[in-house]
């Protein structure tokens, strides 16, 4: 039906995904009544402030973003939500996250990023301590 230049223009405008003619991609913004619900970067204002990697940094200006209050410890520490946890993997993830968000790495940054770094680091510490011990992990699971 739409071939040649017209089809190419529709694909460029995002109305057709490449390789699936006649289908339009669903837009998450159209489904939400509030419009664009993705968080904006506090520093540069770009949409999807925590869009890169684990959502800790802005994809545009690389500023540390505020912690997500809805994120649970299991998803933060990249573990399955179950009582059995690989403690070696948990320790590795803890060290990996602390290398990203530890306040010592933000000494030359703005006060806002220093504050976010402290909050992230505290959250990572709490998650690690909670998931490492079987009793606190079990209590966290049932809460």
Automatic annotation (TrEMBL):
tRNA-binding in keyword set: no
Pfam families assigned: HscB_4_cys
Record's keyword terms, sorted: Signal
Residue intervals of the HscB tetracysteine metal binding motif domain: 39-65
Annotated SUPFAM superfamilies: Chaperone J-domain
The keyword Disulfide bond appears for this protein: no
Coiled coil: none
Top-level taxon in the UniProt lineage: Eukaryota
Protein name: Iron-sulfur cluster co-chaperone protein HscB isoform 3
Lineage: Eukaryota, Metazoa, Chordata, Craniata, Vertebrata
């Amino acid at each position: 039906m739409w071939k040649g230049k017209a089809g190419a223009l529709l694909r460029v405008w995002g109305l057709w995904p490449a390789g699936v003619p006649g289908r339009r991609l669903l837009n998450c913004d159209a489904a939400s009544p509030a419009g664009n619900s993705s968080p904006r970067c506090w520093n540069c204002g770009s949409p999807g402030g925590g869009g890169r990697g684990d959502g800790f940094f802005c994809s545009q200006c690389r500023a540390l973003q505020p912690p997500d209050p809805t994120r649970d410890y299991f998803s933060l520490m990249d573990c399955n939500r179950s009582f059995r946890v690989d403690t070696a993997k948990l320790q590795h993830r803890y060290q990996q996250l602390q290398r990203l968000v530890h306040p010592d790495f933000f000494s030359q940054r703005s006060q806002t990023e220093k504050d976010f770094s402290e909050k992230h680091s505290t959250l990572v510490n709490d998650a690690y301590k909670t998931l490492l011990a079987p009793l606190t992990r079990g209590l966290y699971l049932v809460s």
